[in-house]
Amino acid sequence: MSWWLVLGALISGVACPSPESEPCGEALCAPDELCDEVHLECVNPEQLRSCRGLPDGTLCSLLGASGYHCDAEVCIRGECGDGVLDAAEACDEGAANSEAPNATCRTDCTPGRCGDQVVDSTEACDGSTLPMSACSELDPRYGDGALGCTWDCQYDLQECVYTTEIVATGVHARSMAVDGEAVYLTDESAGTVLRVEKASGTVTPLASGLASPRVLTVDSTSVYFTTLNGQEVMRVPRAGGTAAQVANQSVSQPYGIAVDETWLYFTEYGRGRVWRVDKTATLGTSEILADNLNGPDFLAVDDTNLYFTDTLNNAVYRLPKGGGSPTALATNQQDPRQVAVDGGEVFWVDRSAGKILSVPRTGGTVVTLADGVSGVTSLAVTATHVYWVNGNRGNVKAVSRTGGAIQTLATNQGDMMDVAVDDTYVYWTDNDAGALLRVPQ
Q: Domains in the chain, start-ordered, CATH in brackets?
């Protein structure tokens, strides 16, 4: 007898439920229930009425409750994994529900996603599921440290610190520069300029007896540097030789220095000026590029312009290499320091605000790349990252040029004044230990 003949008889009173219990699969149906021979379940007449003539999968309700659907014209409770999307489910692909990576629907009828403890192809980890647990598994250059997992299912590298390598001992640095062969240092206390071979760690004094050598830069032939107490702008051959005074005048508090193919540029903090002089000259005549500035100090150069910070005017400026009126790229800084230019961007530190910042070199919106970075004494830039050291706090850190998570490269270092980069490594000196160190980028 069909369901609808039975149901019609029940409704019309022609047939009444048997007072006897009716077996149904492994159950016994109550007198007011019928046996659903398709699902082998006991059902009541409402389950038949609500699905009469409806296709499988149609949502239905029973006694006002949701979570049911029609199957073989019977309103039955949906179950995760039955292939029917019920109201309480985000997905249900039946037998295709899986905990395998990249499955679109999990066995609890929720979509595959970051946070489901399954590592999909777009994820490095997921919650407590980490294919690798130690930093050294991810990169053998890391020392001790455990990997974590971030909110977006990528490895958290906060505990991962590269193993530092000592390049040379017995050295201290106020300022640093690097080329393909060596690292160059000014030791302000000892009054020396040093060359350290990157491959062997051999230390060669290039100049000595100097009066507080401060900031230096290097080109293909020479090392250029300023002396604070000597009020000089000087040059010494990269391979060693006689040091020469490039500019013929006494410079009040010379500080920032930069070099291009022809000129040596420097700032005069004490008189608020930016100068240039022929880099090959000895006691050459300097040319004022900008005057009446408040406190120009750090300096960088590209093909067409100079960039400098003015710590008394709390601004970052661009100045044509031939001189002219400076253009403010960033104002209302608290203590701008350590300027660098690379590609289309200018980078600097606002030391009092604890920020690493950038701005397009043509001007535009100032971007905070890192915040809460106290005590930064120097930065260096590569094509992908900005690196910095934070003085006596003993850390070497990095952030992407687009911002994001800060990566720690080294900790527990001593006093650090400067940082430099080549194509492979980041260099700094631990002035407390008297050592030049490096880590891979």
A: 3-77 (no CATH), 165-440 (2.120.10.30)
